[in-house]
Design goal:
The chain is 56% helix and 13% strand. By secondary structure, it is of the alpha+beta class. 34% of the residues are buried. The model has no long low-confidence stretch (mean pLDDT 88).
C-alpha cells in the first residue's frame, strides 16, 4: 500500500484503542455489533475472507469489508500487531479510512 495517510490513521486508531486485531478480536467485534469497518490483509486466506463475509452477513448489519493492498507484516508495523484481519470500532475512523481507500482506488484506476 502506498498510502501513508491511511497507514498513519490505522496507527492512530490502534493507539486510540478503536481497533480489534486478529480473528477472535474481529469476530467478537462483528458479533457484538461494535465493528464499523472490517479490513483484510492482501495475504489473508480465502477461508478467512469467507468466514468474515459470513459473520458480517449473519450480524444483519451492512458493514463494509475491504481487502487492503498491504500484507499482514506491513499492517503489523503500523498497528503494532501482525494480523490478517482488523475491525475498526469507531464510526469516525471508519468513515475517514473508507474515504482514503476510495481516493487510493481512484488514483490507481
Amino acid at each position: 500500500m502506498d498510502n501513508p495517510a491511511f497507514l498513519s490513521l490505522l496507527g492512530i486508531c490502534r493507539r486510540a484503542n478503536k481497533l480489534s486485531c486478529g480473528h477472535d478480536g474481529a469476530v467478537g467485534s462483528i458479533r457484538s455489533k461494535s465493528a464499523k469497518l472490517c479490513l483484510l490483509s492482501s495475504d489473508s486466506s480465502e477461508r478467512l475472507r469467507n468466514e468474515i463475509s459470513r459473520e458480517t452477513e449473519m450480524s444483519g448489519k451492512n458493514m463494509p469489508v475491504r481487502l487492503l493492498c498491504s500484507d499482514m507484516y506491513e499492517i503489523g508495523r503500523t498497528a503494532g500487531l501482525k494480523s490478517a484481519v482488523l475491525t475498526v470500532n469507531d464510526e469516525g475512523f471508519a468513515k475517514a479510512m473508507l474515504k482514503l481507500l476510495e481516493t487510493e482506488e481512484e488514483v490507481n484506476d
